[in-house]
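Lab notebook, page 48
Experiment: co-folding of the full assembly
Goal: obtain a model of how the components sit together before planning crosslinking
Operator: M.T.
Materials (sequences as entered):
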Amino acid sequence: MTVKEFIAKFEQDVVFVPEGTLTRETVLDTLDDWDSMATVATIALVDENLGIQLNGDQLLSCKTVGDLIGLLNHQLED
Amino acid sequence: MIKSYIRDIEYYLPENVENNNVEDRLTDKIGIYSRPIALKNETASDLAVMAAEKLFLETKFNRQDVDFIIFCTQSPDYLLPTTACLIQSKLGIPSSCGAFDFNLGCSGYIYGLSLAKGLVETGSARHILLLTGDTYSKYTNENDRSVRVLFGDAATATLISGIEAQEDFIGPFVFGTDGQGANNLIVPAGGHKEPITEESKVEVEDQFGNIRSRANLYMNGPEIFNFTLREIPATIHRLLDISNKNLTEYDLFVFHQANKYMLEHLRKKLKLDVEKFPIDLGNYGNTVSSTIPIVLKNQLRQNRIEKNDLLMLVGFGVGYSWAGCNVRWNK
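Observation: model returned without errors.
Model output:
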């Protein structure tokens, strides 16, 4: 899965924003749908596409979309 | 040999209902539209008594023949005495019966079946009334969206009896426990570790705007989800191993109904058929140890379970505690 694909799925299935809305600088807290359900959805997204489990607390400490991608850096292709 | 089997199941839902907001995207994702909520003076034991009365009425089973009551609850009437004793009295079950409560949540029904099996197959009891009942609504803060929209109140009554047979109808079982997960689904104050003080009632807002006090239920959704993904597939494989079965031999998989989103994800991960995997919590929410028997009863009502069908029951959650078992339907 590429970084682009990840962001697209994140936009579509987790925070429900139009494709292309998010950048690495986007602050997660500014997104209406970034709530506890969204963190669960992110864990599901990563489990389904990369077969790995994200730590919930690490996830919650992410401030930006870039931080989130940073957690998955070794698993995503450019 | 005497083998235990599930004879009948009934459930009772409080009449008062809370609706989830249909305009909230979350509602569709979790698949919960309304939740029965007990009234202020309605306790889990009241709901359990109603479920049992329904069972006696529908099945015409003579309550004088019940010789054991097991009540699974995390919402007891009192710290002591045992709520099952009060239930014995309210139901008019002979005082020669045994009765006890046990404190488990989402894994509770399966543990209850294992206890009933033990009593029946050792000849210690003949007809077990296994009750589940909880009022988590009394623990959740109305302004905590992370839990309020998920949990419903309910009770169920299951009759387990014995019959002469060669093969198991209930079992084998696999169990799991991990106390490391304790803080991820907890009511922190109110027990002996943290007695109730004025401090306990102080409401605090979390990073998502949810409000709760130490006396309210707290759930770390992401961590619970991780726990489920980590332990449940492995547990199922253990069960398949010890029962020498493969997934295709099962007619129905009844998992604890936590929320639709997590169940769907699990189903896909395990590659289970949609038709064999009921998701049935739209009008109930997560009713803790009642979810599995409620699904079973609804499936029976829809004639979706036949004699000799092989069922897999899997419960998981608070504790962490989990369990799985096979049930060969015998009716």
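Interpretation: The helical segments of chain A are 3-14, 36-50, 56-60, 65-71.
Next step: discuss with group before ordering constructs.
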